[in-house]
Amino acid sequence: MMPLYVEPNADILMHTVANWMVDIIAEKLKQQDRFTIALSGGNTPKSLYLLLASNAYRHKIDWAKLHFFFGDERFVPFDDERNNAKMAFDTLLNDVPVRPEQIHIMQTEHITPEASATAYEKILHQYFNGQPFSFDLVLLGMGDDGHTLSLFPGTAVIDETKKWATYLWLEAQQMYRVTLTAPIVNQSAQVAFITTGANKASALKQVLEGPVNVHQYPSQIIQPKGSLHWFTDEAAAALLSYK
């Protein structure tokens, strides 16, 4: 059965995730000389990133061997507060000893969304072509509509089978977004969803226990070659039949 971790509240949950990450990173680095991780955007991971950058965790990870990627990006300038990479730098990457050349952001300035996705896909192929897995770890969130990455209900990117990165216009937000796709994420060694809050309970129930309908609940399409883990607080897990 897929691992499901349920903690009383979001604060305890983030410590659980952080401890789990410390362990899997250390174990993987015994076998190889680098660890590739795709970061999630949105509000949920902010407290996790702050925790990882804190004195309690910063010295438990060999940051020099980590290579950072991003799951998706809002097509706004880097200094825009909505930019996922900016959030990751502000909460984590500016405060840990990782080399700049090992951080791969999705370009959103002086480039078109299509060219940004193409450039990012090129980077991914340079890292992962011929490898048994793609990322060592992908961190994902889930929206209260069941979306993950920029795979929103009813969007064509859900059906992408070849491209590893693509772009879309999201009418509801009046903006372009660049995103990893299911084919590359599903080649990962580990995928971890982090979901908190009562507003996620209905979608989480459908994603984990409802019939498969990836166009309505796109998070269901994430079924990695490696291991899938769900980390949730009790509020988000309130409607699940198994906990």
List keywords for this structure.
Rossmann fold; 243 residues; six-stranded parallel beta sheet; alpha/beta; globular; 6 helices
Describe this entry's structure for a reader.
- By secondary structure, the protein is α/β, with parallel strands linked by helices.
- The protein has a single domain (4-112, 122-176, 187-232), classed as Rossmann fold (3-Layer(aba) Sandwich).
- Helices cover 26% and strands 19% of the residues.
- The strands form two sheets. It has a six-stranded parallel beta sheet with strand order 1-9-8-5-2-3, with helices on one face.
- α1 packs across α2.
- The longest helix is centred in the first third of the chain and has 20 residues, at 10-29.
- The protein is globular.
- The model has no long low-confidence stretch (mean pLDDT 96).
Q: Could you give the topology of this structure?
A:
Layout: E1 4-7, H1 10-29, E2 35-39, H2 46-52, E3 66-70, E4 72-74, H3 84-91, H4 113-128, E5 137-140, E6 165-170, E7 175-180, H5 182-185, E8 190-195, H6 201-209, E9 227-233
Parallel strand pairs: 1-9, 2-3, 2-5, 5-8, 8-9
Antiparallel strand pairs: 4-7, 6-7
Helix pairs in contact: 1-2
Which architecture name does CATH use?
3-Layer(aba) Sandwich
* Strand line-up of the largest beta sheet: 1-9-8-5-2-3
Biggest sheet features: 6 strands, parallel
Give me the secondary-structure category. alpha/beta
Radius of gyration: 17 Å
The proportion of residues forming helix, as a percent range, comes to 25-40%
Reading the helices and strands in chain order gives: EHEHEEHHEEEHEHE
DSSP strand count: 9
Give the integer mean of the pLDDT values: 96
Distance between the termini: 12 Å
Proportion of beta-strand residues:
15-25%
Count the DSSP helices.
6
